[in-house]
């Protein structure tokens, strides 16, 4: 066959190709526009330096969550990698890779990085969202320095390089080799099983025999929400660990996630919550579209908040061989809006604790520096330094390890945790798809109010409760490793009793604005610890809504989602 020709395609910049919290996310019709995706991919490839390419064996890992437009995007990326002088691309079979699996494969194969095709928990299908996200050689999301460079490139792009004649057979495992005109070396595409490397990694972290023995005695229900996790659930949980086949629910990846919102929370995974109410299952878990998020439920639908989940895993990490082997955890971290339960564990165990802005990328430097082992976010993300993405399946395996070691149910484990460390009540109110103008106005008003000279010391009351402001700011973070500074990461009001109210605009939406209101409040009184979070936090929620004028400005009486 004649060498594949490298074609230079003339193009002009698109506005707004700025990667958000987690890559560039836009509605599918936008991505399908001529040159739109190619511009962004070229900008990404152009920002990988020669040194990075060399250190990464001139290799990239590519795959995604199976959503609509993904296969086309994979073919296009492969063609552009060939034209841009990459020597090898490792692709999951049929383009399928969970986000944690990409992170695992980048690290295992010492690749220069990876391109993940996902819009995570956003709906899919022809009118849903699509996304392209770049991960660097440590396996984690590109830090802001890199995403800013990519964004800058998109603003002046004039052409991109592509080999239109290359087409990969995404279904066949093994290598496919192509000659590229003008390039001395062949271009290799390796199609790998989507689960193999990830499964091997799980074997290294967890004790499969123990988990298998547990799963012989209890029932689990794992809802993949028609996202990418189906093959992982079936292979690891069912085939390897012996969970019964009917434990795997919605485990066939669909390009529109069955028309649902593939987000594992109490609203969008309500089916799981209802199924758990039957009392038949000891553990219920759900994953988002790309498999990095998770939700953990106990029998009867007992909900473990993500903020509690990471704290429980941290407190019990001696049950997991990976941490046991290395003499325990080096450090813990959470994102700023995440409830403070993990802080209590860190204090109790004498382990260093870090608070970072929202976004998994902020954990990467700490992990690379050997300062952080376990971390989590309120946004249903839990993980450790085994990779550089949050890892939904890892969280499930961690819970199974703890249940097996402690010989206790999810609810018993959580109750024992609260009894020992106290309980941080936590809730998040989401107002999705609000008009951007009033949302920005509200944030500006709140910032002005809380940074005003007389705000500290002010008292706010609702019913019988009164809270006095101890501190308030727009959260700013200085990375302790590289000194980089991230400003405007969320408006927070801290009260004297340790309670916090936080306002933040989502960085993952694709249209309008999503306002998030987070409330965190600590309770040591054992008599109150089992009360309902919504009841306990009501006064603070009302205070927050009133001082922000959220209802008045947005016209929203109720949040779209409460977690
Ligand atoms: C993604 C990131 C998380 C982050 C979340 C925040 O899932 O991977 O690390 O917590 O986005 O989403 P938001 O919509 O609140 O910006
Ligand atoms: Zn995700």
TrEMBL record:
GO terms for molecular function: magnesium ion binding; phosphoglucomutase activity. One of its GO terms (biological process) is carbohydrate metabolic process. Its EC number is 5.4.2.2. It holds the Pfam family PGM_PMM_III. CDD domains: PGM1 (cd03085). It comes from the Eukaryota. One of its GO terms (cellular component) is cytosol. Belongs to the phosphohexose mutase family. PANTHER family: PHOSPHOGLUCOMUTASE (PTHR22573:SF2), PHOSPHOHEXOMUTASE FAMILY MEMBER (PTHR22573). This is phosphoglucomutase (alpha-D-glucose-1,6-bisphosphate-dependent).
